[in-house]
Write a structure and sequence with these properties.
Length: about 190
Amino acid sequence: MNRYAPDPDRDRTRTRKRKNTLPLRLHHHAWITDDQEANRRFYEDVIGLPLVATRTEHQVLTGSERAYSHALYGLADGSALAFFQFADPEDQKEFKTISDSTPLRHIAFKVETETQEAMGERVTAAGDAETNAHVIDHGFCVSLYVTDPNGLILEFVGHPDVEKIDAERRATAHADLARWLAGDRTSNNRWQ
């Protein structure tokens, strides 16, 4: 029996039970790295995310057995950033994550202001210009942007009034989207 196959009776019951549920949290975000040790130094030693698991596996992926490592770096809520590296260079090339060079494609993390400042200090002390570390005050938040050794852009977001600002935006989210879709491009960022 396929548990995902349509079953109208089961689906109505599940919909009623799950009407107001959301995913609990991000479990992990996966990416490919060409160098697990350089990646570990960046995430653990510089950014401060602990290495919480390394899985070394052999698995059939797309019809061939592949050997790979899967390293996970933990966040405070139990979620993680995960990085794969394949033993075979041809497998590595096949599964390499392609990323367009745009600052709009990134992963953002909520952090306390002190954590953000400490990260910025460690990134600066590491002296790697490739990280392109910089801070932008968006008004509704202050963001530290850092590029990891794989080209993945990370944003560490903090603001002393983040809960108040988030509550205001949540209350008007649908109206703001409807206004935008109707052609009104007026900024609603009164904090900037």
